[in-house]
């Protein structure tokens, strides 16, 4: 009976299982002036449970953490180092329809990036967007004459 009791502990369905966090990449904007700031932020984040890799780009003021971590916990850990931190507010320039819209263009943004704001995205009901995508090469339902 000892072996069956041992196996029943592993297959017990009454006990809830812990959900595993999803693998994700968290990007945070942190102002870092020197090697000491960079080292302090890197050490704080790399010792987190679930963090697989940490990339620090001091020129862009960006920290990327990949692993089984929660974004809010990573942000709190970086803020505990004494640095002002926020989630990465920028998107690549080529993904935005209107990069020079109000509040989208930011002089402090790294090259090739603009701020992620609602005004920079096209409205789905805009007629000019519908006409430009209607006869696109990527549209498989477009006119066969093209």
Automatic annotation (TrEMBL):
Organism classification: Eukaryota, Viridiplantae, Streptophyta, Embryophyta, Tracheophyta
Keyword Lipoprotein appears in the UniProt entry: yes
An example Gene Ontology biological process: response to stress
GO MF annotation: an example: metal ion binding
Places the protein is found: Membrane
Recorded family membership: Belongs to the HIPP family.
One Gene Ontology cellular component annotation held by this UniProt entry: membrane
Protein name: HMA domain-containing protein
Predominant cellular place of this UniProt entry's protein: membrane
InterPro entries documented for this protein: HMA_dom (IPR006121), HMA_dom_sf (IPR036163)
